[in-house]
Amino acid sequence: MLFRRDRDPQPEDLTDAFLEGDRPVAAGTVRAALAHRDFRVIWSGTFASNVGTWMQNVLLGAYALALTGDPSFVGLLVFAQLGPLLFLGPVGGMLADLVDRRRLLLWMQAAQLVLSLGLAALAATPSPSRAAIFAVVLAIGVANALAAPALSAIIPTLVPRPDLPGAVSLQSAQMNLSRVIGPAIGAPLYAAFGPEWVFALNAATYLFAVLALTITPVPGRDGPAGASGWAHLVAGFRVAVTDPLIRRILVTLTAFSFFSLAFVGLMPVVARDNFGIGPRSVAYGLLYAVFGTGAAAGAVSVGTRFASRPKAPLARGGLLVFAGLLAGFALLRSAPAAYPVAAALGFAYFLVITSLATVLQEHLDDAVRGRVMALWIMAFGGTVPVGVLIAGFVARQVTVTVVLLAGAAVAAALAAWADLAAVGAPADPTPRRRSRRRRPSPGGVPARPG
User: Fold this and answer.
1) Is the pTM of this model over 0.70?
2) pLDDT(3) > 50
3) How far apart are alpha carbons 267 and 118 in whole angstroms?
């Protein structure tokens, strides 16, 4: 690492040296994204917060099943938790462009902190009200839905456009590493002390996101000055209808989320009915953890192993592999065999999601990014709970195996239909190589970018 001779080395120089050295860094990789300080801080803070969120998300289903023994109540709570993303996504996208994003995110994080403490208090009572539990979980879901588009719009602005694929890959990996670490912490706590401790610890993790947002500059609103609230609200829909690539990505994601991802919310039922694994056990936490490990690996692979590969065909191939793995997971009846299959299923799952997200983010204009990403959140985060809600009732009438096999069939059909290259996805988005080695200035003094 070379420094300018007219000043002393600065702390940021040492960070650059540690992250970059003197070797070339490929644009679009996870390493390139992590070279940007603001992205690192926000990513780390939301990572810690998401560990608590997924600790609660995963074990909430197990808690609901243990409390009632009813798969439909599990589906109902998953719907309350994630359903608001479907109905309030456009409102969150509009807010992301009309109000101060930092203030919006801070208020929503604080609201979820308080509500999670309320959920912990309910779980500590001997006979908690189902209606009260549903209401609190729904309120948490509303706060999350209003904040999610703002966070999705901020992340791409923290890195230069060439490094966007690496940032998207890391965001996807973060979600799934949270699924690994969260259950690994929450499952022993749940088994030893009960659900109230899990929910209280989740409340504390929101403080990490608050701190990150406080110390990092956050880009302001993107919306055009003077635009009406209604124009902001419908802008994302208008872009999605007129742009064939965005339309096909969102339709693919919606069908995939609704039909093929119901197994995620019904994992406690799959574990109990097909593998003989109790929902309140370390074995269940480990099953979800290996699934999350595979998903995190699939997400990271898009910005590492497959960084130079076109993402459109990668998503299509991933759908086909996912279909085969989900069918195999549905038919398995061996608990030991379920763990490696769950890991492979998670890998294919987030290989698909991260590839689709990368194609979309690279295609979007910054002026409409928040509102279109609100539609992504609706299609991904919002459609899943609706699918889980319906699948829970279907599983009660038939079996959870039938639900998973139907999801596998839909994924296979989507692999045949989701040809993104045919509607505008780039055929060769190979990142350009860029060197971090400082080039000498004409005067012989090593120059440092400003």
Assistant:
1) no
2) no
3) 25
Amino acid 332: pLDDT: 92
Residue 433 confidence (pLDDT): 40
Q: Which of 149, 153, 155, 175 is nearest to 88 (CA)?
A: 149
Q: Does a structural domain hold residue 10?
A: no
Specify the amino acid at residue 157: T
Q: Of how many residues is the chain composed?
A: 450
Highest mean pLDDT among 15-29, 232-246, 292-306, 408-422: 408-422
Supply the CATH number for residue 390's domain: 1.20.1250.20
pLDDT for 331 beyond 80? yes
Contact in structure between 187 and 201 (CB atoms under 8 Å): no
Average pLDDT over residues 81-91: 78
Does position 38 have pLDDT exceeding 50, yes or no? yes
Q: What is the tally of structural domains in the chain?
A: 1
What tokens appear for 305 in the block?
A: 């192993």
Task: Report if residue 445 sits inside a domain.
Answer: no
240-249 core/surface letters (b: 16 or more CB in 10 A; e: else): beebebbebb
User: Is 399 a domain residue?
Assistant: yes
Q: How far apart are CA 9 and CA 64, in angstroms?
A: 56
Kindly state the DSSP code that residue 350 receives in the 8-state scheme: H
How many whole angstroms from its chain centre is CA 281?
Answer: 25
Per the structure, the complete domain to which residue 323 belongs is given by 26-220+227-428
Among residues 360, 330, 81, the alpha carbon closest in space to that of 245 is found at 360
Question: Higher pLDDT residue, 89 or 204?
Answer: 204
| Averaged pLDDT, 133-146 | 90
Q: How far apart are CA 306 and CA 316, in angstroms?
A: 14
303: tokens are 């910005």
CA distance 39 to 329: 36
Per DSSP, the three-state class of 410 is helix
Exposed e or buried b for every residue in 355-371, given b needs 16+ CB within 10 A? Answer: bbbbbbbbbbeeebbbb
In a domain, 15, yes or no: no
